[in-house]
Amino acid sequence: MHGDRKSAKEYIDGFSATKTAVAKRDIVIGLPATLLQYWSTYARRTKPYLQWAAEDCHWEPKGAFTGETSVAMLKDFGTPFCIVGHSERREYHKETNKQVNQKMNALLDGGIIPIVCVGETLKEREAGKKEKVVGAQVKGSILASAKNYDLSKIVVAYEPVWAIGTGKTATSAQAQEMCRFIRDELKAVLGKDMADGIRILYGGSVKPDNIDELMAKADIDGVLVGGASLKAKDFSRIANYKELKK
What we know:
It is built from 12 helices and 7 strands. Helix content is 42%, strand content 11%. The model has no long low-confidence stretch (mean pLDDT 95). The chain has helices spanning 5-14, 19-24, 36-42, 71-76, 87-92, 97-110, 122-126, 130-141, 172-190, 192-197, 211-215, 232-239; strands at 28-31, 51-54, 81-84, 113-118, 155-158, 199-202, 222-223. Strands 1-2-3-4-5-6-7 form a 7-stranded parallel β-sheet. The protein has a single domain (5-239), classed as Aldolase class I (TIM Barrel, Alpha-Beta Barrel). Helix 6 packs across helix 8.
């Protein structure tokens, strides 16, 4: 819940990325609904081209759901991506795996790429339940649709809730371990080829000083950036990460 039109313009104007990064990477900014129209207009006219994502949606096409945003409304702005199942939505709004799955399905039906978030809390990790919790989220939020939907285009984001605002930071090895676990869960149902083609992002205290190490890990295909994305300079450095050996 950040930003207005003035700060959005300053952000776009202040962002810098190499031609290589723009050509090879999807650079996407998650926006509050109030900025979708402005961003879709102004960002299209600038270089580098910054794509955008809505931060949430409702699964119903219309109806008495005051304050919600439908997939059709997002498509009206040409929105290419939408984040669902974010840890804050799961925690503060008590969203269930079933509801996240309904949102993912609605996005797929509408031709918008879902970025589906999963991740465990500090209490769950310390209790040795990280695989159980994340596995249930992957099964309930994503794989529940395996028989009825082509899941090859979705994006999965692993965001360890315990590494967000707690003072604790996941190591690149811990991030890789859980991203590998998620990919194995996907492989068990979707098969190796499709699972290997699904992008898995890591989101948890991603910063300019750890991006290169994170992106060198085999099962981390990208990052979901929190606080560091609010500063155009910091996010520019993240988007221009150095490609170390995987």
